[in-house]
Amino acid sequence: MTAPFLSAFDLTKPRTQNAPAVILFSGGLDSTTILALAKHLGYHCYALSVHYGQKHSSELEAAKQIAHLLGVERHEIIHLDLPRFGGSALTDHSLHIPTSNDQANLNTNRPVIPITYVPARNTIMLSLALAWAESISSLDIFYGANAVDYSGYPDCRPEYVRSFEVMANLATKAGVESLHPENGFRIHAPIIQMSKAQIIRLGAEMGINYSQTVSCYQANTNGEACGICESCQLRKTGFSQAGVSDPTRYQINI
Amino acid sequence: MTAPFLSAFDLTKPRTQNAPAVILFSGGLDSTTILALAKHLGYHCYALSVHYGQKHSSELEAAKQIAHLLGVERHEIIHLDLPRFGGSALTDHSLHIPTSNDQANLNTNRPVIPITYVPARNTIMLSLALAWAESISSLDIFYGANAVDYSGYPDCRPEYVRSFEVMANLATKAGVESLHPENGFRIHAPIIQMSKAQIIRLGAEMGINYSQTVSCYQANTNGEACGICESCQLRKTGFSQAGVSDPTRYQINI
Question: Which residues in chain B are closer than 8 Å to A79, comparing Cβ atoms?
Fold first, then answer.
């Protein structure tokens, strides 16, 4: 069986056998794919989920189940009270989560920041991953950012990931004590340039069952998706374009 | 009255009148000085303290009092369970906090990371400050890092601060929507190149009463300092060299 997507990740392989890696893991489709990829490449996986006050906390329940199913070394959930800073539809209950019909930013040339952007959320989560990585002597962090479908998010761009990597190597013991830059931290963002359909086909090559993953911004407590938010629309289209049947569990009465 | 230290901060002045600034504020001597400085320069100050599981949580009580005394717009304390990652004497109760007698790294040429270093702590705290700053449309973050007395901490070096600033401007709305780099985030580290004595003299020029500030790694619940840890020794020497009488409240029976 050929695996064209999987075979493209040779450069992402561990520098040493069984090297530990920290994977930012929300329990959604993208981060489940990178967790499976890190494991497939031979890393010992430490999955980090962050409960930052998002409305869709059912994805964390999914994260627990999937981390167990994929056999990670450890799964940690860190709690952080981001809603007190305000400013995002994902954490502020007074703001409406947009559906794909009222988002005008998907096809413009100049990016507009979506209201679902949470200020500095990904930077905080990468910093927490960096803390854990340094504590367990890991130099590899996997980050499921995607610049294709979410082009409006500044912290999903490759240039952001590179700048975080530079900063991480100045912030830590690795930056002071390592004499060889190639021994420093690497922020792996393996799916950053892939379409949702390509990500799903990569997952299919690894045999991932996506039925447990939750991507919806407003899933119910059973982890069933709304089917209409921006995230659901992107996921639906992804399965369709990948030619893979969509196993997502949708709410019936919506 | 001349104020040679204070007059050196013209470049740190607000870009617009009453501009909001987020100040990383532990309640210690250094961060109290930068909070007073930001206020003196004309910023509307938002003080951010992080309770990251440090043993010396009495400094947070001091932080509340000082923030109130200095008249900040808002003071937030964010809780974060860093001890679960392990790896530092400041958060791990099984590790001994070194005194100045058993620290060998203060006078070496090649820096050695002290055991009191908390992996990625400052990066996490700056990321939280960035989240709050972006939420309140602030572009100014004040960070009390010091590269002179704590030369072993990688995240107290000027090159680290600059790399965080670059990353912050790629991570956020400011980085995507601003067409002028000078309109982006600035990470102010005004005391990074100053000795403890110089910091104390800057504070004296602003009339700061340091008796409420807590710098000790193992202060008791009344905020009284041990007098023997590395942080206490640096502070004592600082007051002595500044020619300012030391108002620190020390534990009597130590």
Answer: 81
Report yes or no: A83 at the B interface, CB cutoff 8 Å. Answer: no
A121 touches chain B (CB under 8 A): yes
Burial of B172 (0-12, 13-18, 19+ CB in 10 A): buried
DSSP B117: P
A142: three-class secondary structure by DSSP? strand
What are residue B181's phi and psi, to 5 degrees? -55, -30
* Residue B228: closest CA among B250, B197, B200: B250
Cβ of A208: how many Cβ atoms within 10 Å?
Answer: 22
CB of B69 closer than 8 Å to CB of B25: no
Nearest Cα neighbor of B77 from A88, A81, A77, A54 is A81
pLDDT of B110 strictly over 70: no
Sole residue written with tokens 């930056």: A175
In tens, the pLDDT along A58-84 reads 778 889 999 999 999 999 999 888 878
Is the per-residue pLDDT at A1 higher than 60?
no
Which residue's structure tokens are 């007074």?
A94
A chain contacts of residue B171, beta-carbon cutoff 8 Å: 120, 122-123, 154-155, 160, 163-164
SS3 of residue A207 by DSSP? coil
- Among A76, A113, A172, whose Cβ lies nearest the Cβ of B120? A172
Strand partners, A186: A140
- Residue B85, min C-alpha distance to chain A (Å): 5
Enumerate helices (H) and strands (E) in chain A, giving the number of each: 7, 5
Of A78, A136, A171, the CB nearest to B155: A171
Pairwise CB contact (< 8 Å): B160 & A167: yes
**Which residue in chain A has the smallest CA separation from B132?**
A85
Rounded mean pLDDT of chain B? 84
- Mind telling me how many Å the CA of A86 is from chain B's nearest CA? 6
CB B89 within 8 A of CB A135: no
The angle at the Cα of B22, spanning B219 to B218, to the nearest 5 degrees, equals 10
A159·B170 Cβ contact <8 A: yes
Task: Look at residues A69, A83, A104 and name the one whose alpha carbon lies nearest to residue A208.
Answer: A69
Is any Cβ of chain A less than 8 angstroms from the Cβ of B160?
A: yes
pTM of the model: 0.87
| ipTM of predicted complex | 0.86
